[in-house]
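User: I need a structural model of ABC transporter substrate-binding protein from Shewanella algae for a docking pre-check later this week. Nothing fancy, just the predicted structure tokens so I can convert them on my end. Input:
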Amino acid sequence: MAGRLFRSCRRLKLTGSILTGLALTMLLGGCGQQKVPSGLVYCSEGNPESFNPQLVTSGTTIDATSHQIYSRLVDYDPESGDIIPALATEWQISEDGLSYEFELRQGTQFHDLPYFHPSRHFNADDVLFSFNRIIDKQHPFHEVAQGGYPFFQSIGFAGLIKSISKQGEYRVRFELTQPDASFLSNLATDFAVILSKEYADQLLAQGSPQQLDNQPVGTGPFMLVQYVKNEYIRYRRHPGYWGNMPQSEMLVFDITPRSTTRLAKLITGDCSVSALPKAGELPVIEQHDNLVLESRPGMNVAYWAFNTQKPPFNDVRVRRALAYAIDKQNLLRAVYQDTAVEATGILPPSSWAYSDSAKSYEYAPDKARALLDEAGIDKLELDIWAMPVARIYNPNALKTAELIQADLATIGVKVNIVNYDWSVFTQKLARSDYDSVLIGWNADNSDPDNFFTPLLSCGSIASNNNRSRWCNPRFDALLNQARSVTDRESRSLLYHQAEAILAQDMPLVSLAHAKRMALKNASVTETSLTPFGGIAFANIGHGNKPAVENKTSPAKEQN
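Assistant: Understood. Predicted structure tokens for ABC transporter substrate-binding protein:
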């Protein structure tokens, strides 16, 4: 709670003193005469893998970086899903759909930090650097990201971009190799952040280019101050932020893996907002008037992916058999408790391309046994890897695995549940050593391609986003065709055909589409839940204060 953050000038503390150092820095020199800084504490669920979202797809890293530290050329309206200006104030698209030209926001300031003092504002050089690093294998910073750029690799971004050119200090042009209706939407994703070329040049000259992704510099609303693994991440408000000034001067991610501990901290006021409340905690939440649970339909999917390159999961009859053996309704009741709907395909009902005609495999153990017999499977034993952390699309993967384990036992299939620590899980997941894995996806924008190409295209196998390691050229051709047209009705029909192929080949079992939920203290305002993944704290604060207008915005400077 805000009132509990800083009550004493003699002793400044919050949740184990995680704000002490930052608060002292801001208040030294006469506490009684200076304004007490405002703060917001978010109980997060895990450690970020990096401080550059270009390099990852995990929600934990996205939450800690994308909307706190960085900005993108364009964003999306959280209500309509429409593309709106961000670091680009306007853009033009050629009639053939092959050229996109962006006018850039002038006067935008990068973070000024102890390890970097910018000498100029954001400009076209930063845009070229941020994307050329991804697509140009000869770029000096390309190989610094040893794990690659999984989202961009999964959508074939390098093959799509013919060139990126500077048309002036504040104007850039992207030339595409083919029309792509999802291009703007992909620039609005959490991964398409803009980095500082000047900072990168400084690091290269110092011989420490790897710091680019671990000591970040962005144009976002908050600047990174300190990160202590397994404990906390501290941020400070960026005084030169181009948008509305954040309400909170300080932001802390209190890393708290256990959901029950996050809830306890929220009840005691040690946290203002909590990540990923579990459905089973609802009765406890209802007993506390100072807690508010917000929810809305989400753009996400939880699924059980089979490694189709490993026998016997390379046999479609085995995959279909396992799909028939799952009692999804029981799973929804036990894991989600009315906070999700059954997934009949990969697209959620909130997508404009959704079709309720997508084939869903009903719970039919007899059909499952018959298909296993047809495949010549007498005894089957398999591993299910379960995520060790909660996610919006699956608040309890271990419980989900246990339910599937019980379902498969009724058809004579033995299941071993594998549950690694998060850091080990992500490393092993990248090596695709599993038989099957419980995983999922939060959409980054409203374009339906975001559910198909990054997760299930042939190209997404190399980036390890395609957890099924499934490749169907007919399916890929439909996705390519859907991106080449702009008419929504035509695109929807193509995605319906793609869903039909998924139901036929069954590389994964879609389980649920969960509501997006946020648990917060009643004093916290402006959480503005969106259907998409990621969380932004720029407009979140305590009390009824509106976001502060940035008096040093580009428009003001130009007058």
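Before docking, keep this in mind: Confidence is low (pLDDT under 50) at residues 1-34, 544-559.
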